[in-house]
Specification:
Elements: E1 2-10, H1 17-28, E2 40-47, H2 52-67, E3 73-81
Antiparallel strand pairs: 1-2, 1-3
Length: about 80
């Protein structure tokens, strides 16, 4: 069993209005040191794969086909083997 931890965020060239609103709220709360905010989606996916390579391949396909819009978003992930349960 493997755990894939996936982070999906907008590409740098895409305006993220929610992140802009969060940054503005931080400034209103006097967190003036904040210069940029990026928000996104986080997923934890448990995979019943026989190898780490298979788990990574499945994770890549899931991200490409379902979790991320390739025109607007980018993703990164880490796959970890889970201890025997």
């Amino acid at each position: 069993m493997f755990l894939a931890q996936v982070h999906v965020t907008y590409k740098p060239s895409i305006l993220d209005p929610q992140a802009v609103a969060i940054k503005n709220a931080m400034h209103r709360l006097n967190f003036d040191e904040v210069t940029a905010v990026q928000q996104g989606k986080y997923f934890e996916i448990t995979l019943d794969a026989s190898t780490a390579d298979e788990a990574e391949s499945q994770t890549e396909a899931i991200c490409d086909q379902l979790l991320a819009n390739p025109n607007m978003e980018t993703y990164r992930y880490e796959v970890k083997e889970l201890a025997n349960q």
